[in-house]
Design brief:
alpha/beta; 3-stranded mixed sheet; 3-stranded parallel sheet; 11% strand; P-loop_NTPase
Length: 266
């Protein structure tokens, strides 16, 4: 609501449309998304548009299922003013193409306008598997520590905004180098305060091993519970130590490693 009011103050003549979430519950619970959207619209003399659905749904869910053009049409058709028409929405039926395959088929450029979220704007995409590579002694681990500390504290990195969250740093080579670097960062950038949302695993983990993957997933669950924050970044340092006895240059072994990383990410 505060954002809507700020926009109204900035643009007093503009038409403001609240694209709300349709939080439909089968048990009859309050539709919070609809309620909040209508409340904000009433405060700024605006409009509300909710996706036509019979289950929990937001507009991006609708777009992914029915495509951009159908979403544009539905968005306009579903628009209403709460103060003028506070009545239940009429469901509009859209039929998605039916395919026999279980693969997620989508038309041509459908989804081109999906927003790319970043952990570090312009550098590190969220929900991805990334690799920092370079010659030996090129400070890759220092970079990883810096990224982890900035994301765990929410501090901008090199002037770029970050998405704050908990971080797990797998110190595959063990030793005291990484904790000392973290402490140096705390003293120079964090006012000496410890970073509560950054946890270390002082041994290698092996994404190609299903058992190891489950251990990482459990560790992530524990850290999330301890910090109350979502896990944003898991750092494996180094690739060689977390590759086990496999061959980094073998496509089969690298494929198993990446598959394990994807499973952890999911």
């Amino acid at each position: 609501m505060n954002v809507a009011k700020a926009l109204r103050n900035e643009y007093p003549e503009a038409t403001i449309i609240l694209a709300g979430d349709h939080d439909i519950h089968t048990d009859g619970s309050t539709n919070i998304g609809k309620e909040l959207a209508e409340k904000a619209a009433l405060a700024v003399d605006g409009w509300v548009s909710l996706p036509p659905a019979t289950t929990l749904c937001d507009w991006d869910d609708f777009r992914q299922q029915y495509g951009l053009e159908a979403t544009k049409t539905a968005f306009n058709q579903q628009r209403y003013k709460p103060s003028i028409m506070p009545i239940p929405l009429t469901r509009i039926d859209y039929t998605a193409p039916e395919f026999n395959t279980s693969l997620p088929l989508r038309k041509g450029s459908d989804g081109f306008d999906t927003r790319q979220d970043y952990l570090i704007k312009g550098y590190l995409p969220s929900s991805s598997v990334a690799s920092a590579y370079g010659a030996s002694g090129s400070y890759k681990s220092f970079l990883a520590v810096s990224w982890g500390c900035h994301i765990a504290t929410g501090k901008p990195w090199a002037g770029k905004p970050v998405t704050q969250g908990a971080v797990i740093y797998v110190v595959g080579e063990g030793g005291i180098g990484v904790p000392r670097r973290i402490r140096a960062w705390e003293q120079t950038i964090n006012g000496g305060s410890p970073i509560d949302a950054l946890y270390r695993v002082d041994c290698p983990i092996f994404p190609a091993s299903p058992e190891s993957v489950q251990q990482v997933i459990q560790a992530a669950s524990d850290v999330k519970a301890a910090t109350g924050m979502p896990i944003r970044l898991i750092i494996l340092d180094t690739l060689a130590r977390c590759f086990g006895g496999s061959d980094e240059n073998a496509a089969k072994d690298m494929g198993a490693f990446i598959q394990g990383c994807d499973y952890i990410k999911a």
